[in-house]
UniProtKB/TrEMBL annotation:
UniProt GO molecular function: copper ion binding; oxidoreductase activity
Gene3D superfamilies recorded: Cupredoxins - blue copper proteins
Keyword Signal: yes
Record-linked SUPFAM superfamilies: Cupredoxins (SSF49503)
Keyword annotations of the record: Glycoprotein, Signal
A Pfam family reported for this protein in Swiss-Prot or TrEMBL: Cu-oxidase_2
Species for this entry: Daucus carota subsp. sativus (Carrot)
Alphabetical list of CDD domains matching this protein: CuRO_1_AAO_like_1
The protein's name: Uncharacterized protein
InterPro entries: Cu-oxidase-like_N (IPR011707), Cu-oxidase_2nd (IPR001117), Cu-oxidase_C (IPR011706), Cu-oxidase_fam (IPR045087), Cupredoxin (IPR008972), CuRO_1_AAO-like (IPR034273)
Family: Belongs to the multicopper oxidase family.
Domain Plastocyanin-like stretches: 35-148, 161-314, 399-535
Annotated GO CC locations: plasma membrane
UniProt signal peptide: 1-18
Amino acid sequence: MALIRTSVALFILQICLAFGVSSSEDGAVTFDLDVSYIIASPLGVPQQVIAVNGMFPGPVINVTTNYDVTLNVHNRLNENLLMTWPGVHMRHTSWQDGVLGTNCPIQSGLNWTYNFQVKDQIGSFFYFPSLNLQRASGGFGAFIIMHRSVVNPPFRDPDGDVVVMIGDWYNRDHKALRADLDSGKVLGVPDGVLINGKGPYRYNPTLVPKGISYETINVDPGRTYRVHVHNVGISTCLNFRIQNHVLLLVETEGFYVTKRTFTSLDIHVGQSYTFLVTMDQNARSDYYIVASARFVNQSLWQRVTGVAILHYSKSKQKAAGPLPDPPNVAFDKSFVLNQALSIRQDVSANGARPNPQGSFHYGSIKVTDVYIIKTMPLVMINGKLRATLNGISFINPDTPIRLADKFRVKEAYKLDFPSRPQNRSLQMHTSIVNATYKGFVEIILVNNDTAVQSFHLDGYSFFVVGMAYGEWTPNSRSSYNKYDAIFRSTTQVFPGAWTAILVYLDNAGAWNLRAANLDRWYLGQETYMRIVNPEPDPRNKTEVPTPDNVLYCGALNYLQKPRKPSFTSTISSSNGGSKLFLLLLPVFSAFIAALL
Ligand SMILES: *[C@@H]1O[C@H](CO)[C@@H](O)[C@H](O)[C@H]1NC(C)=O
Ligand SMILES: *[C@@H]1O[C@H](CO)[C@@H](O)[C@H](O)[C@H]1NC(C)=O
Ligand SMILES: *[C@@H]1O[C@H](CO)[C@@H](O)[C@H](O)[C@H]1NC(C)=O
Ligand SMILES: *[C@@H]1O[C@H](CO)[C@@H](O)[C@H](O)[C@H]1NC(C)=O
Ligand SMILES: *[C@@H]1O[C@H](CO)[C@@H](O)[C@H](O)[C@H]1NC(C)=O
Ligand SMILES: *[C@@H]1O[C@H](CO)[C@@H](O)[C@H](O)[C@H]1NC(C)=O
Ligand SMILES: *[C@@H]1O[C@H](CO)[C@@H](O)[C@H](O)[C@H]1NC(C)=O
């Protein structure tokens, strides 16, 4: 018996090492994220893909409210890297946000350790590499924050968790896609949609070639699963549905919603949703899980469809027949608005704390500043293809914003981002918002382009109070939801329409406001909100000091202690033995759990 115990302990140690995870009871967790290239063929064409710990998608980071999270990111790519965790609020520490306005990049061959607390948060999020279109090659994984055991969610504990990462995909890697954009070409129709890094099940022999490996989600009949769905793609909104099954929406990006059932839901780029799904259908059959392109010409975009299989444990029959249809609303523009606005906060539910989510009565707070932020179709500026916000295409600073402030670097950026669209020639520079600390601001996001877009704000959640077609006017405010608007961090803005959000700027730092659509972001559709407490703060409460391990670059490069690369970039095959070991991990864990 003693022998077994020892070997079990050894096993656990090995698993921790292999997975790079260790966790202690005081609510701290440490992950090693080893970012490298692998060769994979998700759509049947071999290509370079970005893996995390050898896996594509990367491992799930699964933590609990208030945990201290330490993430040691190792850059084995042959270019700069930063990991970002959108929607996970870095309270008072934009130093950990992992975008170029807040952090110097981790150079090839080096590692850097992020440290932050997931303070007062629950919910489903995902992480990804934020630079240079890298997300188009992978590097993403789920980031789940579980509720504390003393705070009950507004539903019964599910029987299990399922993570589903959906996203459009090209057979060209991020460097090739980047080269297209740099030479003034748009990306065009994607080659497909991946579900958990895999291509479509062969539901149609004409559309799907032989030999593509697809995702299978194994379930037991009668059980209810919590299904976390993330659109990690480049620029395509996807309609998500499971054949014959009802999706009960319970949470989005950190907040519980009033429960609503859907047969399908549009998930925009960068958005995350959690559903409860009960396996209540004929258990002798498998079912399709579908993610198909929305708001595009269906006949031209037919191949941009992801299909996975929901496999009931005793099922003998393959999923069959045509795929379930997406909503047929081509001529009903109001359907999508109504669907979006129907997603509301469950104001009486406990959130991360044991008090109701709706206890912040945002509808009665006076707005201090109004910003109208408009996006236009792509343009050429100085011979380059660019995307803009209020006529400005953003150039990343060489020196991160708050670091430049601390060392009084001159002209690292300009605090001149206009609060209204400008009637002047287009510009290209590092223009950021001079926002007011503890201001309660209204931002009207206007989409003057012809494609749907999503916008994301780091460091905050915002209330999505209104959305409509046509011009926004002050009268539009009468349509705002002032009571139970959803509180989230990524919202869609339809073409020819606006979306209004309210946000309380109580988190000091420099926070990225951007298009979640990757090509748009790469081409400059972003800015930052610089939010600084003007009062002296000797106790470092409004903003923590720069971390000890801060990286220096740009004008502050001279402060950076030289670091020797500890490894070089490598490319390995995705079918290595280590992959097999990782695949078997759940089996080992179950085995150990049974023994202990
Ligand atoms: C790099 O990783 C090593 C361990 O793998 C760690 O000791 C070191 O602190 C890390 N460096 C940084 C800058 O995070
Ligand atoms: C996260 O961990 C909890 C246990 O703390 C587990 O119940 C849950 O299924 C895990 N979620 C995922 C997505 O792995
Ligand atoms: C979709 O594309 C096809 C093929 O180019 C074209 O014939 C059709 O008119 C388009 N449909 C719409 C609604 O634009
Ligand atoms: C924009 O500026 C041009 C001249 O620079 C002027 O002719 C035009 O009327 C202005 N448009 C608006 C909407 O102010
Ligand atoms: C930023 O705003 C503050 C007031 O909120 C003002 O005092 C300051 O001059 C502004 N800075 C710039 C560069 O406009
Ligand atoms: C863009 O703005 C112009 C001028 O306000 C307007 O005429 C046009 O309809 C808008 N287009 C879209 C797609 O919003
Ligand atoms: C606040 O941060 C500064 C460094 O920026 C440090 O010198 C000082 O000791 C900190 N004060 C407290 C109370 O932690």
